[in-house]
Amino acid sequence: DQDDLEKERQVIFQEIDNLEDTPDEYVHDLFSRRFWGESAFGRPVMGDARTVGSFSRPLLLNYRQCHYQSDRLVIAAAGRLRHDLLVELAGTAFGDFHNGRRPPPREAVCTFPGAYSLARDLEQVHLVMGGQGPAAGESSRFVAILLNLVLGGNMSSRLFQEVRENQGLCYSIYSFLHSFSDTGLLGVSAAVGPENLDLLLETIRREFRKMQTQEVSAAELQAAQDYSRASFYLSAEDSDNRMLRLAKNEINLGHYISYEEIIAGLQAVTSRQILEMAQECLNPARWQTVCLGPVDSLLP
């Protein structure tokens, strides 16, 4: 309905404005645009005011016909349900679902390393830096999970302990890992006073070099494995998480992967494998660094 379209358009305008007013989130949007470029990964999920303002009902229907195909849809559910009833309900709701035109071919993944800063009148500099990691279906993703945990994935991590606890450079710092069907992203995010930006960047690079030259200790590896195992089992207590896992496994891998398989994959990771992945992935020359706030330039 055209009235509903206009109402939703105004809601999205507000969401875009809200994102740009939230620097710790907006900097991730800026990073994606710079690192992934004009590919689909680089485009903001919400769009921008220009594109959202141009959307019409025929345009949305055309998009639906191109991209929503019955053989590309996954229906996932978890909780108190019966599978046969779910199948019956899905058949009733989607039985007459008709495909339209085939979608355009998938674009090849491209990345663009470098450094970019956007000056804005803020109290802190918000920073995101990252590079390519393993895709969701690669066996090396287990190594990446543990590398991320050791580097900055929790409060016991190296970056958190060195940057926040030992040096007191900033309050917020963490590393993150995103895995997609085509590729992955390993990155670091922080918020820091402008006077400490250069020292923060050098400290992060120093921690990178340590991970590239020294194997993590047996105790550090065990702590990361224990933490990841506990996190996976804790997430299993939430029906929403179980539902999303089912869908992601089906979309990215084509089959279900049990929690036991994941734990076994994590337990099989060695310190040597983490070292080798650090040497491959923690290369600032192949990373993009984006800063938002009171900053004019970045260290080379």
What would you note in describing this structure?
Helix content is 51%, strand content 13%. The chain contains 12 helices and 5 strands. The protein is α+β, with helices and mostly antiparallel strands and 300 residues long. A hairpin with a 4-residue loop joins strand 3 and strand 4. The model has no long low-confidence stretch (mean pLDDT 93). The radius of gyration is 22 Å and the shape is globular. Strands 1-5-2-4-3 form a 5-stranded mixed β-sheet, with helices on both faces. The chain has helices at 2-20, 23-36, 49-54, 57-67, 83-94, 141-153, 158-166, 197-213, 218-235, 239-252, 259-267, 271-281, and strands spanning 114-119, 125-133, 172-179, 184-192, 288-293.
Task: Give keywords.
300 residues, alpha+beta, single chain, 5-stranded mixed sheet, 12 helices
Number of DSSP helical runs: 12
Task: Provide the β-strand percentage band.
Answer: 5-15%
| Average pLDDT over all residues | 93
Evaluate the radius of gyration. 22 Å
- Oligomeric status: single chain
Straight-line N-to-C gap: 52 Å
The low-pLDDT segments are: none
Strand order of the largest sheet: 1-5-2-4-3
Tell me, briefly, the overall form: globular
Largest sheet: 5 strands, mixed
Which percent bin holds the helix content?
40-55%
Q: How many extended strands?
A: 5
SSE sequence, one letter per element: HHHHHEEHHEEHHHHHE
Overall structural class, as computed from helix and strand content, comes to alpha+beta
